[in-house]
Fold this protein.
Amino acid sequence: MNAPAQLETARLTLRPWAEDDVGPFATLYADDGARFVGGRCTTDEVWRRMACFIGHWALRGYGFWALEEKANGHFVGFSGLWYPHGWPEHEVGWSLVPAARGRGFATEAAAAARAIAYGHLKWTTLVSYIAPGNDPSRRVAERLGAAKGSMIKLRGQDAVVYRHPPPETLEIEQTCKKMEP
């Protein structure tokens, strides 16, 4: 089963990636916060990363959506479901451009993605892997009700496993119905 290609929340559109996203996406990977999502990248490397995200959709039927602020149409980051080859478990992840941080967008987008994972895709478990020291992402995971678990090595880097509440404890069906186009 595939995830919906586009979702809407109160303030965001979670949509497919577009060529025009390269420039604003590059601002995310030019910032110091990029150390938590694979490290700083050139614009060419960002383009390839975006192509990887699109390829994940083609191979898995779900992935990271580009996030667009409804109020002004600006690209603000990405969020979604991630499970590349060799990944330990299904993950919900997020990252925002510097100008969009601290406004609740990551929590809003990740909650929508989690609702799709549990309600639409019928997953029974979901985690977020967060690098030690990534306090903004830790706070997002905690706001989503995820419980801190063990430390693991993920592609040679330390990551703390944050386990999201099981679907039966969340109002998934109502959330999915609100997001249907």
Remarks:
- The chain has one domain: 7-179.
- The longest strand covers residues 75-82.
